[in-house]
Design brief:
Chain lengths: ~500, ~100
Amino acid sequence: MENKLERILPDDLMKKYDYKPFETTEIGHPIIQRTAPKVRVSDGDGKVTNDLAKIVKDNVKDGMTISFHHHFRNGDFIFNTVMEEIMKQGIKNLTLAPSSLTGAMNDVAIKAIKNGTVTNITTSGMRGELGDVVSHGALETPVIFRSHGGRARAIENGDIKIDVAFLGVPNADRCGNANGMYGEEAFGSLGYALMDAAYADKVVLLTDNLVDYPNAPASIKQTQVDYVVEVDKVGDPDKIGSGATRFTKDPKNLKIANMVSDVITNSSYFKDGFSFQTGSGGAALAVTRYLRNAMIDQNIKASFGLGGITKPMVDLLEEGLIGKLMDVQDFDKAAANSMKENKNQQEIDASWYADPDNKGAMVDQLDVSILSALEIDTNFNVNVLTGSDGVIRGAVGGHQDAAMAKMTIICAPLTRGRIPSIVKSVDTAVTPGSSIDVLVTDYGVAVNPNRKDLQEQLSDIPGINLYTIDELAEKAQKIVGQEEPLNYTDKTVGLVEYRDGSIIDSIKEVKD
Amino acid sequence: MEIKKTAIAGTLESSDIQVTVSKGNDGIKIDLTSDVKERFGKNIVKTIEEIVNKFGIENINIKAVDQGALDCVIKARTITAIQRSLGTSEEPDWEVL
């Protein structure tokens, strides 16, 4: 069957999983029934142990769904420690439901797939070797890709039913009160893990830093936690995040960032009290620096900055140019550290951040979002998941969610080496074009034709060269030449959910 | 035209292509390594072959390590490698250029 974006979806799997094809970005006002976890009653004593093997043996059974968070990013030790123990005990057919999978988890995840320990995966994304083996058909069932908001929705309504959540924390007390702010491996916000803590039947904290009871401020609460497992080391602090996110020196990226700033400051959204979110790509990050100057010049302050927080945003907060930072995760140490220093940096969970099925997520209040893309097509559909060789090498992340902003700007160079970023049809549609408003490239700007208002606001502005997106796609193709189509088999290796749970696209096994 | 000695042009920098030509005895042999082989492999080989044909070379071994170079770069590096091999860099074959 085909969905509204004319993406062909596999009939058998759509039926088997009872999925609906993507139709619209409008969520409406449906009544949603949420699920609740089972609770094994405790007075809080006796939760501490250093016997991970026993915890695994008592709680993880064949066929269960287990989860992890990715706040330790490439410095994560928890996933590997727990998965090795699970494999040692010969447990099979698990569904892996982490908030995302980072490079540090790749080798162990591949091993677990190959020996049948893991047979299903749902995640925000995957990269490197893991993306490669999955794209080459290592799993029998397709990986379900969900945005951060989509995962929160799926956990709340029971589409993801987590049996056991293994959550690494840089501190915890003996009853399970924990936060992400203190300790050697502090990473700041626990935003994604808070969903697992609230909805998993069993919550296992793992920490190398047992602190006095009661631990405060607590993000994960003792009311949610079954066990506190002491381990040698939860992660490598040097790999959790760089000291401060490095500013790009790439002149292409700087040019794009400057132009994005021009687009924002010349739009009707640039007024006192506006709000914004930036992605983690090179150009998207640099925008904050240009925006800062315009805010000072025109005496405009932002009410809030949202999403993944970086040092440039913290600088704006400390300068009084942003009122609040609403923080679901921290991309660098400066941002992580700022969470405990600045009372105006509020930790938010993934549901509060981006869940479509609640009583108001922050992305719906967002004025401007600045996001990256691997590819964008002439219908403004964006791919952030599969690379130019068709292999999975990215993550949905908050892309679909942040695109709910009143003005969503995609920044991408026209070409990366010989690979065009602006194409006739994206390899994998992740974020629908109807939620994208402006594309900024190093060659010029294209406005979504359904945004006549923005078209008008941005015309005749020095420094902003407006093109149609078809013109930009033609320009790109003229430079790189005609690409050959990718070769795929009929096997589906991934299904991409839109944030509402409908299917926006499928990913096929690559044929080499 | 005969390739006599091995010659090289280009670097391994991003958006460049390193072309090494050497004596061959079995037609035009091109060994291509490229990150964009799936999308542009045939294109790159065709571009290199066209240059070789313009020189009228019948036997040649070419090793090309591509880092996403555009057509104009591929042509330039191939021409330079062949001229260096033929020792004609100082008196280029203008018809080919």
